[in-house]
Amino acid sequence: MGKTTRTRPWARAALFGAVALCVAVASPPPAHAVHYRIQAETVGDAYQLVTSSNLLLNRRRLHQYLGFQAMDLLSDGEYQLNAAALFRFDADFGITDDELEDVYGLRRQQLSLQYAWVDGREIGGFVDFRLGRQLHYDALDFLMLDGLVISFATPWYFGVELQAGLEVKEGMAGINASALELDGVRVIEGEDENDRPTLVIGAALVTRDLTYTRARLGYRRLFSDGEVDSEKVGGSFYQRIVEGLHLSTLASYDLYNGRFDRLQAGLRWQATDFLDVEGEYVRLLPSFDADSIFNIFTAFPLNDGNLRLRLHPSSEDRLYLGGMIRFFGNEGYTDGQLLADVDTVVQAYGAMAGYFRRFSKHTTLHVDASVETGYGGDKFMGDVGASYALVANEWVLDGRLTAVSFADGLQDDLEGFSFGYQLGARYLVETKAAVSLLVEHNFSRLQTSNLRVYAVVDLDFWL
Fold first, then answer.
1. What is d(CA 347, CA 325) in angstroms, rounded to the nearest whole number?
2. Which residues pair with 434 in a beta bridge?
3. SS3 state of residue 14
4. Measuring CA to CA, which residue among 105, 75, 108, 78 is closest to residue 91?
5. Is a pLDDT exceeding 60 seen at residue 385?
6. CA-based nearest residue to 174, from 197, 200, 202
7. Which pLDDT tens digit goes with each residue over 252-300?
8. Residues whose CB is less than 8 angstroms from the CB of residue 455 and which lie 6 or more positions away in sequence, other chains included
9. S-S: 42 plus which of 19, 306, 350, 457, CB 3.0-4.6 Å?
10. Which residues make beta-bridge pairs with 404?
11. Does the pTM of the predicted model rise above 0.85?
């Protein structure tokens, strides 16, 4: 992930000071050196939108990332103690004063700490830990956590993992920006209800040192002011049945609402070097925090099945074909009575296909298309793109054309056709830096003209 070295001075000083403190405390012997990695990325995003009512909107945004890693803090060559941090700064110069007043939590500038942790591996031969701000994901959910995750290995092919800390919330004061909170939690303007800390505790059993089997069974509970916000149990399982045949499953059970909110099973078969087949079934039922306003609505599950075939005619060609069928629960209720003339299950169908061709080390071409119909309306999407390297591994040009046609099945007159193009160029400096420029222009009935310009500067190197 690329980055630029510019950020706020105090943030940079705090970051490097924290790592320097870790290094000093570790008192490394002179036999090995600590390895440092700096990653920086600057993204400029400018776009102009003309709405169907000829209203002109101008937006100018800047996104800045600064990341740092320090590997092998003990300097013994074992990499038992490591540290990492990532800062993000966002600025939107197109936000008006009226928007600031009308939209709760909207800001022109936002400095956030995405993660900052110290990582220990095989301490004493059987303990791993990660302490600090971290992104955690498993079968239960995604979570941004300020706290400790510690794992203990056992001699019986499994380990025990414990979690404890505070959930990072978007609305809390400080350098917090998280997109991982569940939707619908109450926010009362002028009140500090959203600033209440949410405690997180969890535990899991995890397989270890098994070549063809991976499994995880976990539990997690979030609570604030002594009240449960979320409580789940679930797990994931992977098994290579025979060579080329792989099974994976996942399940999450919401203990607060008393239902499975996610079930998933997939099978992948590498039949030959020419063909592989993948199928998946997913059952989703919305799950929200205990104090979410969305819990007052009756929800029914979505069941989705899809199948995809991938063909490899040669080392330069790839082709895929796929299809899906989707079932939506639609049991309409009023005061506990089933509404008349309502299908309890409605269906949607779809198909997709794509082709990729590498003509040489300089030129590639891809074509993708998909179509959906049934409940929710009709939608067609087409995408054609190509890239050409003027100088291999240095100057690259690319472009693409996209087309979308849709007709909403639930709202009358909500339909349209959208066409767009993208033109881009990228300059690579060995493996340490890249400069990219992208122009995107889209046209539709709802948005007469939507023009975007992106500029990206990436840095990624070891010291």
1. 7
2. 428, 458
3. helix
4. 108
5. yes
6. 197
7. 999 988 889 999 999 999 999 899 999 999 999 877 777 677 766 667 7
8. 43, 44, 436, 437, 438
9. 457
10. 381, 418
11. no
